[in-house]
Amino acid sequence: MSRILNGIVAVCPDLGIGNNGKLPWHPVRLSNEFKHFRTMTETPSVQGKQNVVIMGRKTWFSIPEKNRPLNNRINIILSRQCKVLPAGAHHLVPDFNSALRLVDTDLAEQADQVWIIGGSSLYKELMESSGTRRLFITQILKQFECDTFLPEISPDKFRLLPK
Q1: Which H/E stretch holds residue 99?
Q2: One of 23, 70, 107, 150 is an active-site residue; which one?
Q3: Which of 15, 56, 136, 145 makes a 20 to 30 Å CA pair with 7?
Q4: Which domains occur in the chain, in start order?
Q5: Which of 38, 105, 31, 25 minimizes the C-alpha distance to 70?
């Protein structure tokens, strides 16, 4: 089954998405952005199913422990380093393709939308993958110090849709 893959991210003007393993604007809490992220990733389009969030190990551990796993979503962690499922996570896989296979096989009956939520290398894999992909990008209007960035968006592979 070919699913639409969704990426969701907030970026600084220079496409910065992280700093020292945290969001660049931490400890400032962008309440509207968190609400938007939660609504988008948590709300399935099919009643009785759950959305899937796929994230890298560093993204998983950047989420405060009290907020892990992300509620009302199937949490899949990608890691080549972790050999044991991190506490609270639902699934651990070694790579992006394994995560997609898991969604389309073992989770096919319960999974609805698939959301890629970070980090940078996972966004890159999403952007280079075949099939239908959508990026939901929130532009943060203030520049913060960043050491992690969203890969450049290729205009020949993506087009800006009206709001």
Answers
A1: helix 96-104
A2: 23
A3: 145
A4: 5-149 (3.40.430.10)
A5: 38
